[in-house]
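Example record

One chain of 294 residues, shown exactly as stored in the release files.
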Amino acid sequence: MVKSKDIQMRDPFIYVDRKKGRYYLYGSTDKDVWGKGTGFDVYTSSDLENWQGPIAAFRPDSDFYSEDNFWAPEVHEYKGYYYLFATFLVKATGKRGTAILKSDSLTGPFTPHSQNIVTPHDWFSLDGTLHIDDQGTPWMIFCQEWIQIGDGAICAVRLKDDLTEAEGEPITLFSASEAKWPTSFTKEEVNAHVNYVTDGPYIYKASNGELLMLWASFVKNVYAQGVSRSVSGLITGPWKHDADPLFTSDGGHGMLFHDLEGTLQLTLHAPNQTPEERPIFIKMEEKNGVLQKC
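Predicted structure tokens for this chain:
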């Protein structure tokens, strides 16, 4: 068994198996996430503190189209199977994007399901997440990276019903600078832009039916977690941004889940420095769409 404080992980994601009374913890688990990718591991627990693992959930074969930057896996049940959305740096293009893998087990092995990445092949994209709208249509929400466009954006694209590829062109939901809380920065070795980061979108339907989006950026070079909300209640927005971030203690790329007792929990990684990053869990309350720590 291993404690949460001893698991080096970025971008944590929890799947709750209520039938078995188990939590499944996925994340960016390579020791050097900025370099060569070896795959993704999963840990299992009954209490969010003591974990069994790591269990190899995905290991690429020699023909896999990526060998670097294996990031931000998250697993969703859809039509009787488990689908893993994750970011990869594609060898053929030198650009990042989100691909979809599939398994009939939460512990894998997951194998490629989409033909390649499902984000645009000429974009730098990352952190795709699945959202099923009220009509049953699957969408992928993802980020177009600041290193390409300066002002990082969060986008949405419809997926085919079998999740093998995108259907139609992506739409931009908003740019990071539209929110009040993120701070801009410059990085001349990358581009000449004034830059804003968007990271790790996650969609959550509040108890009042409001559609919320968690996403991460930086406040004065410190990683932070913010919240936006769809004015229309649809994934296409328009989106209104909470003025203040939800978490400002050098952590982010979070998601929300109800634990086995029904308590709302936020998980994210903190701090944001490798190799110190760890998954942390914070009990939350949500009233009329407003999130706050317990």
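Notes: The longest helix spans residues 146-149.
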